[in-house]
Amino acid sequence: MNHNTDTNPLEIVSRQIDAVNEILQLPADEIAILKKPHRTLEVNFPVVMDDGHIEVFTGFRVQHSLVRGPAKGGIRYSPDVTREEVQALATWMTFKCAVVNLPYGGAKGGVIVDVTKLSERELERLTRRFTSEIGIIIGPDSDIPAPDMNTNAKIMGWMMDTYSMNKGYSIPGVVTGKPIELDGSLGRAAATGRGVSIVLNEFMKLKKQDLSRMRVAVQGYGNVGRWAARLIAALGGKVVAVSDIKGGIHNPDGLDLNDVENWVNEHKFLAGYPKARSISNAELLATECDVLVPAATEAVINRENAHTVQARFIIEGANGPTTPDAEDILVKKGTTIIPDILANAGGVIVSYFEWVQNIMTFFWDEDDINAKLTQALQRAFRDVEAIHEQYPGITYRQAAYVLALSRETKARRMRGIYP
């Protein structure tokens, strides 16, 4: 377990809850409930590898809250997955769903595995066995997984098929983020990155800032970062730097994102791209820019590097990318941070749309989905902004948490404590 209080994800969540409770003044027992996940399932399961030997993998599924509806949250595959990380991510999902007012609680899952060392068949066998192991708590009415780090639509298809085969009939609503051919939703792949661009645009309009004059750096050029960069550029922002796990590229005059996309599609990584200067991830975070989009993983901006960040605005595409110590440093510098539980909620909103379409067996076109996504995020941004104005001097993260914790605790009080 990571005991660094600056980067330990559970410690970060706890500190964020405590900080906002200085405003809300909720009773200690309600805070205690918010800090503890409702249920944590740990599974250790064997997988037959291609050469015939057996490896045992460890996975988790955490349900933080079921108060406002079924649990909702992604599945990540990474050698860095820990119980504490998954518990923290599930907690953030509860707050994210509350901020955008979805009828969900938060969940998260993960398997400790390096997917680069697995064949396609090994990845499928691992996924199917993990799905069977957590099948005792997931379901379309109880807990609905989705893609996250190193998982994708294909893996969600395997999960849906496995769960359905175990039940004896097709149940597409058990997961979201599925392929379109398996009752997935149009617009899902771009949803999180699109949401980042929508929230950034709303913020810029509110502050009467011209997005076309903004230099943007995106850390994490996976699905979220790619779509965020592309859609922010479509709104007029100048993307000057992007990075992935192996490093990044920088061009102060702006990157040709179509050309960058073609390079990554051919070479898999940004490394070696010939039309921009190569930079490290640390250099990207310190890039001279107006808007920084951390879109990779948690705690990348921490007390060790926060002083190097030059961006005036940070919009969090990843979950938990800025630690509390880093935020203290940045706020004192005058940096405005739009928090993850608002900024990257586009993915869970369109996941909700997919789930609804699966339940109704009636599907919407992509324009409808994008319009509904925009409306939902504009409404959530207005709700957060209203609280930000109500309590002068608080940060946008505190405003979002006031909204989330208020909705969660009000629902809990109305339900009462069973028995």
Radius of gyration: 21 Å
Average residue-wise pLDDT: 96
The amount of beta strand, in percent, is 15-25%
The CATH superfamily name of the largest domain is NAD(P)-binding Rossmann-like Domain
Total domain count: 2
H/I helix tally: 14
Q: Which shape, going by the Cα principal axes?
A: globular
Strand order of the largest sheet: 9-8-7-6-10-11-12
- N-to-C span: 35 Å
- Major sheet: size, sense and barrel closure? 7 strands, mixed
Looking at the overall shape, the CATH architecture of the largest domain is: 3-Layer(aba) Sandwich
Helix content: 40-55%
Task: Describe the structure concisely for a colleague.
This protein folds into 2 domains: 37-182, Rossmann fold; 191-343, NAD(P)-binding Rossmann-like Domain (Rossmann fold, 3-Layer(aba) Sandwich), CATH 3.40.50. It contains 14 helices and 12 strands.
Task: Give your account of this protein's structure.
The chain is an alpha/beta fold. It folds into 2 domains: 146 residues, 3-Layer(aba) Sandwich (Rossmann fold); 153 residues, 3-Layer(aba) Sandwich (Rossmann fold). It is 45% helix and 17% strand. It has 14 helices and 12 strands. The protein has a 7-stranded mixed β-sheet, sandwiched between helices. A 5-stranded mixed β-sheet has the order 1-2-4-3-5, sandwiched between helices. A hairpin with a 2-residue loop joins strand 7 and strand 8. Helix 13 crosses helix 14. The protein is globular.
